[in-house]
């Protein structure tokens, strides 16, 4: 289902074709379109685009690797990145340059993860990605506009058993994660102050069932989660 805010009024939710999913969808604006990706109930990975004039496109399918978790997307001016986790636990990418999708290829940082990866654009042409490894540690990767992915050597020593959520708010990257006991914590990143722990989400110990969602809107930061 999808809905949109149009001139301050939420439109009635509508179904997108006959699409069904076993994981959450990914949504991102790039190349003058809205891109949507989802893992279907057949364990395939599917995508559509949306424009005001044409509505939703017909469904396309990547047939390279079956998804193990929800996909994620992030856009920089020249490229849209999609990351999905294969059934082997490895991270794979597709990129869109405005004319078409690349084939899936394995990340050049050889990680196995136990949850969906989170991505966010940062700086000039960079995409940052966080994921929970098999060691329950949070791993950071950075891609430059013309370079491969690399591990961020300044990563924080965080632990989690779930995926994370990322967004940009007030010129900072915000990361929301669960501690090993399920408590939601926040941290921020700027180039001047890398990964500053911002304490508990909500100002107190809140435990969630699974990974949270986070978004910035109208100068406010919103975190959504299922409470335990």
Describe this protein with a few key phrases.
about 230 residues; five-stranded antiparallel β-sheet; four-stranded antiparallel β-sheet; about 45% strand
Number of strands: 21
- Give the overall silhouette: globular
Oligomer class:
single chain
Residue share in helix: under 10%
First-last Cα distance: 25 Å
* Count of alpha/pi helices: 0
- Unreliable stretches (pLDDT < 50, length at least 5) are none
Structural class: mainly beta
CA radius of gyration is: 17 Å
Q: What order do the helices and strands follow?
A: EEEEEEEEEEEEEEEEEEEEE
Average the pLDDT over all residues and give the rounded result. Answer: 83
Q: What proportion strand?
A: 35-45%
Main beta-sheet strand count, sense and barrel state: 5 strands, antiparallel
Q: Could you write a compact summary of the structure shown?
A:
With 228 residues, this protein is an all-beta fold.
Care to describe what's here?
The chain has 228 residues and is mostly beta strands. It has strands at 5-6, 9-10, 26-30, 33-39, 45-51, 55-56, 60-62, 72-76, 79-85, 91-96, 105-106, 118-122, 126-132, 138-143, 149-151, 165-169, 172-178, 184-189, 196-200, 213-217, 220-224. It has a domain at 1-113. It contains no helices and 21 strands. Strands 3, 4, 5, 6 and 7 form a 5-stranded antiparallel β-sheet that branches. Strands 8-9-10-11 form a 4-stranded antiparallel β-sheet, with no helix packed on it. A 4-stranded antiparallel β-sheet has the order 12-13-14-15, with no helix packed on it. The mean pLDDT is 83.
